[in-house]
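Support reply, case 0932

Customer input (verbatim):
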Amino acid sequence: MPESMTAYRALGPGRAPELVSIPRPAPGPGQVLLRVGGAGVCGTDLEVVRTGVGGLPFTKPFTLGHENAGWVEDLGAGVEDLQPGQAVVVSAIQFCGACDHCAAGHENHCRSLSCRGLAEDGGFAPYMVADRRQLVELATLQPKHAAPLADAGLSAYHAVSNAVGHADRAETIALIGVGGLGGFAVQYAKALTQAQVIAVDRSEQRLRIARDLGADHALDADEHWGKRVTELTRGRGVDAVVDFVGSDETLRTAVGNTRGRGAVVVCGRGGGVLPFSRALVEPGVVVMSSRGGTMRDLEHVVRMAESGVARVEIEEFALNDIPKAIGLLREGGLTGRAVVTSPA
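Our regenerated output:
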């Protein structure tokens, strides 16, 4: 193995990430060195590139890339249940494994939660290190197809599961914003329920893809989409909503179209604020935010992909083509998830 490698790193506040040479990492106790087979490019990476870390905490330079999968290259002390060459996917959530939330299986609520690729070194490099407890083994799925599941798939599954679990029934589900996460959510909603799935987006291309993935209805997110939801549900409102946008408009429309004892789960980071009053929210409606997912969720999304229940469409890029991938993501020019699959 080479002693050094090229990595795409955030170097400081106000500075755009760059490709730089750094030492190859070594696994510590309880850790695994991975040869990266796929690292997904996500909207959060776009935010870091645009703002130079932006509002993220910055204490030291780090390698981007939080959707990662690859092959075991070396084992740290105490790791005895994996073998070199084994394919694994890495949870985007970095958790302690010891706090009360982790002990209860809610790792995405860890009291010392962090994220590789957004604070610690991630996978936009030939090699990366991850804690053993963050890994899920792959049976048939190639790492490049598993990588988007580590965050986009994981977050979508957790959000849909919460929405379905907190609504008293799930005959109709609305998904607002059916891009990267929303596309996964369409598939999970169809797999987990018998519900009629309503996809809402401003992009006709995304709506076409949502229909192809199984959405029963696809609505343009213009000023009338809330009225059309009311018509589709014959005035009753939807049972559950997952909002992958999170703007003032989508939050208000989501809550306003959810029937009593339904559920609204907010996954989007659009900065919206939801005024709360009894006149706005039907009695019994549950409104919650959602972040990432659990290791149990990650296991589920991997097995769903391996069984063919959920599709993972990707577009491959080399490490030195990350700026190109980010540009296409910014412009809406991708039809699948962008995945970095080879070094520069």
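We compared this against your earlier run and they match. Two observations from our side: The chain has a mean pLDDT of 93. The longest helix spans residues 152-166. Please reopen the case if you see a mismatch on your end.
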